[in-house]
Structure formats: structure tokens, C-alpha cells
Amino acid sequence: MTVFQPVRRATLLIPSGPAHDLDRKHLFVILTDPVADPFNGGKNSILLTSLSTLDTALPHDPTCILHPGDHPFVARDSYVSYRDSRIIETAKIINGVASGVFVVKDLMDSRIVDRICVGLSTSQQTAEKIKRFFRMYTALQQSNT
Questions:
Q1: Which residue among 2, 22, 38, 78 is least enclosed by CB atoms within 10 Å?
Q2: pTM greater than 0.90
Q3: pLDDT tens profile 107-140
Q4: Residue 51: exposed, middle, or buried by beta-carbon count in 10 A (0-12, 13-18, 19+)?
């Protein structure tokens, strides 16, 4: 059996439905490779964000819209829900997949992930701690090249 390794571009279905629909899962995209999180005792962590189906009649973040074909799971126009971005310990992701709570989907094209990351930095709905983690990750990547 192969153990899932959370890497940038990986996508997962993660339970994130409302209280009346706990089985509903949203597609999440991993935006960073695992990195020691200095804000969480140096534990290896990743940053991921959620996609939601776009309904123009409802409030949504227009920063980054995805369309059918941007990923095999995206069947309708969707928006990146930056307010739902999360920093999660790598071990929790691996355990979630191993237990079947999280469902692994296809990798997302790197150009789409790059678009999502640009939006992460510019969206007014991205929490400051998420932006800080992403800036730290980006700085580490640049220093390693």
C-alpha cells in the first residue's frame, strides 16, 4: 500500500459541509509542499484552499474563478474560497487519507495552482496568518534555488 504524500498541486475532497450535511465534501488544493511551520512548533505543515461552486446570486470571492476543464473534478464554474484556506499538519493529511475521511483526486495543473496562489496574496478574504505562512514558504523556496 502506498502512503499519500501531500505535495503542491495535490487535490483532496475534504468534509466541509454545513452542520445539516456533514458528508458534503469540497475540493481542496494543496498550495505548498510540506514545510516546517515556525508558527506551530516547527511541525511539517501544508497550506490548502477550497473551491466552491459559483452561484452569481450568492456572495462569493471573485478573485480567482475556475472553469470546467481547469481540473477533472471541476464540472461547473467555481471560485476559490480563500476565506476557507487552512494550514494543516502534514501528518493529519496523511492520516485523513489513510482513514478514508479525505479522498485523493487528480493533481491540478501547475499553471492553475500559480493562478490560485496569486489570488491568495491579493484576495481581501485571505486571513493574514495564511498570507504570512505563504510568504514564509515562498521565501524558503526562493532561497533553495
A1: 2
A2: yes
A3: 999 999 999 999 999 999 999 999 999 999 999 8
A4: buried
Q: Is 128 exposed, middle or buried (0-12, 13-18, 19+ CB in 10 A)?
A: exposed
Name the nearest CA neighbour of 30 among 13, 42, 18. 13
Partners of residue 79 on adjacent β-strands: 52, 65
Nearest to 113, CA basis, from 37, 8, 43, 19: 8
C-alpha cell, 14: 475534504
- pLDDT tens digits along 48-105: 999 999 988 888 999 999 999 999 999 999 999 999 999 999 999 999 999 999 999 9
Helix axes 110-122, 128-143, angle to 10 degrees: 130
Ramachandran angles phi, psi of 34, nearest 5°: -60, 140
Is the dihedral angle over the CA atoms 30, 31, 35, 39 positive or is it negative? negative
Contacts of 88 (CB under 8 A, 6+ apart): 45, 46, 48
Task: Give residues with Cβ within 8 angstroms of 81, minimum separation 6.
Answer: 26, 49, 50, 51, 52, 60, 61, 125
